[in-house]
Write a structure and sequence with these properties.
heterodimer; A: about 450 residues; alpha+beta; 4-stranded antiparallel β-sheet; 12 helices; B: about 180 residues; alpha/beta; about 20% helix; about 15% strand
Chain lengths: ~450, ~180
């Protein structure tokens, strides 16, 4: 008979989520619900009526991990609505910023991943903060990659965390020849480190995959099975590196293929917790006898593409554009590492092509007639879609479909078949960034809004 | 030319979408209007100070000599009052973020190699901003009492890093209880 266990809060990712899991007598997940419990922030409502120049700045503050992706997607959605093409050199600066952001994000995620992994050939979990070798060298390499990403991001983006240089119509400022040389030098240094880091991480991840048993960072060992973190959903990505918008000659994202359903229609109903485990790390299992009600507690709508949940992120990009076919949680993790070198090589190509004396602002910035514009940015965690309608320079409508919102239902399906004690390892493979995913809007078959869960 | 670190860093933390939590970024926006020496860098860390900055600084090859953090702080004062604190005032476990990695006490770890001063402003509200449209260029929506504290925070932060900004304020005395804008 199935039992229900709840892991709350889940750890080592951004935001607040929990897992509600139905498991069989062997502890294998029969049905898993992974849901955001971060309060809705109502960003889309805050932006309505604002100047189109303000809206991307607002969306930049959605969360503290993905401000670059939200800034660029927000700006390009506005540009898509008003029909504003930007100069080539502005585009190149944005590409450099994108590369820097992905480099930093992937390196940061390594720190979150490593505690679940083992030093190859040993049964010792990796403590990325250990002063002992060989881990110390790895940690310093990760930190240097993050520094390089942030420094390049600051040069191209104006601010390292919440970039101030991108603007509607292009960029406020081009960079100097000296700054261009510095980016190139940093990218060359980073390319060597990134390849080393990729090789190390793939070795560690494959070692984990080949083990008969495993545990989360400070937990107890449980038996694994072969298909860990598998699902049968499809993939969505618009570009190997950067983005697509409605202004493209050949757009790669189609708003008419997107629908959303209510969490009420997708998540499990009220459940009584019937299994807990005081030995689970961080004492994170909810005591038996408590109630869980995923369909009422989930803070996100469930986005669908062609009527089904769809995976976004590194594996989706590699699967669509490079025929990558490794499934499972480790397949996703390995795909993320494989994107390391491209962050640096693409950065070098873009900075090499950049004309530092070129104009970076469009000659004319239209004010918009209320047309729908969208931008799908390939953020580190996956496709970050922003949609906007701008009229007379003011935002009439704004919506964000962020990567983790897409991945919640896919990852939930990927939990099935895994030992419940390792469910967090699957969740972490998606590098969830939850705060910006607390978007909640329900539309009917004709795309009319029928319900919204506003600021709580 | 941008370098990730400087000998002295002034960092504003907080989220402008949550009313007075935007105090730190608002002070940084003012500081960026001022020409500063090469050994001083100001940064809007927004929502990401611990993740993006403090852990990196703690392991940098280029140690930061002094870090001035500007943030809101609930110390029981009047809205807009500014107090000065150091990381040792934060009790063990004060930084609770179960969703991060081992960021148990990021500032305490960093304080072993960097002098850290926190300029904390008492907020009036940290609710989601009911942002109006009164100004197209407004990026920060702090309450009136906290807005008045911005110039003073600018002066205090500059004094901490040894920049003479033409004021008579000293940052050495206990600031607790001083009102904003006076």
């Amino acid at each position: 008979m199935s039992k229900v266990v709840e892991v709350s809060p889940t750890t080592r990712h951004e935001g607040h989520t929990k897992l509600v899991l139905k498991v069989n007598d062997e502890g294998i997940i029969e049905r898993g619900d992974w849901l955001s419990i971060t309060p809705v922030r109502g960003i889309e409502k805050l932006a309505i009526g604002k100047s189109m120049h303000q809206a991307p700045k607002i969306s930049s503050r959605v969360c503290g991990i993905c401000p670059v992706a939200h800034t660029l997607a927000g700006i390009e959605a506005m540009e898509g609505s008003i029909g504003c093409e930007i100069p080539d050199d502005a585009y190149l600066l944005r590409v450099i910023l994108q590369c820097a952001n992905r480099l930093h994000s992937h390196a940061l995620h390594n720190i979150l991943t490593l505690p679940d992994m083992y030093l190859p050939g040993t049964d010792t979990h990796i403590n990325p903060f250990s002063a002992e070798e060989p881990v110390r060298s790895v940690a310093l390499r990760i930190q240097r990659l993050r520094e390089i990403g942030q420094t390049v991001g600051e040069i191209a983006g104006g601010e390292p965390i919440h970039p101030s240089n991108p603007r509607i119509g292009g960029m406020y400022k081009n960079i100097s020849p000296r700054a261009k040389a510095k980016i190139y030098d940093l990218a060359k240094e980073g390319a060597v480190l990134a390849r080393e880091q990729m090789d190390f991480m793939i070795t560690v991840l494959k070692d984990w995959e080949n083990r008969p048993t495993a545990s989360v960072a400070s937990g107890y060992e449980v038996e694994k099975n072969e298909k860990f973190g598998f699902h049968d959903q499809g993939y969505m990505a618009v570009d190997p590196l950067y983005a697509s918008t409605n202004l493209d000659a050949d757009p790669k994202w189609y708003p008419e293929r997107w629908t959303e359903v209510r969490p009420w229609d997708w998540y499990m109903g009220e459940q009584e917790i019937t299994l807990d485990d005081p030995n689970y790390p961080n004492h994170a299992t909810t005591p038996a006898g408590a109630k869980a009600w995923p369909q009422m507690e989930a803070c996100t709508a469930v986005p669908m593409y062609d009527g089904a949940p769809i995976e976004v992120g590194p594996r989706a990009r590699l699967a669509i554009f490079r025929n990558y076919d490794k499934k499972g949680a480790m397949g996703l993790q390995i795909a993320r590492q494989m994107e390391y070198p491209d962050c640096l090589y693409s950065m070098m190509e873009a900075v090499d092509a950049l004309d530092t004396s070129g104009s970076v602002v469009a000659d004319e910035i239209p004010q918009g007639d209320g047309s729908l514009g969208w931008a799908a940015n390939e953020a580190p965690r996956g496709t970050d879609v922003h949609l906007a309608k701008v009229k007379d320079g003011r935002v009439q409508w704004y919506s964000l479909l962020v990567p983790t919102t897409w991945n919640f239902p896919v990852c939930s399906r990927a939990l099935e078949g895994a030992p419940w004690q390792l469910a967090e390892v699957i969740v972490r493979a998606y590098d969830p960034c939850v705060s910006c995913a607390t978007h909640m809007m329900v539309v009917d078959e004709e795309k009319k809004v029928v319900a919204q869960k506003l600021v709580q | 030319m941008s370098d990730w670190y400087a000998e002295n860093m002034i960092v504003g933390c907080g989220n402008p979408l949550q009313t007075d939590d935007g105090f730190g970024p608002a002070v940084i926006a003012e500081l960026k209007k001022i020409s500063l020496p090469d050994n001083v860098k100001v940064m809007d860390a927004g929502l990401a100070g611990p993740h993006y900055l403090f852990t990196l600084m703690a392991q940098s090859d280029m140690p930061v000599k002094k870090l001035v953090i500007i943030d809101i702080m609930d110390f029981g004062g009047q809205p807009g009052e500014i107090t000065k604190a150091t990381p040792d005032l934060l009790s063990p476990g004060a930084y609770t973020d179960p969703h991060s990695w081992g960021l148990k006490e990021p500032l305490q770890v960093l304080s072993e190699r960097t002098e850290i001063v926190i300029l904390g402003c008492q907020p009036k509200s940290i609710d989601i901003s009911q942002i109006g449209n009164e100004s197209d260029d407004a990026d920060f929506w702090v309450t009136e009492s906290v807005r008045k504290a911005i110039p003073k925070a600018v002066q205090l932060a500059l004094a901490e890093v040894g920049v003479d900004y033409g004021t008579t304020i000293t940052s050495q005395r206990d600031l607790h209880g001083e009102s904003a804008g006076l």
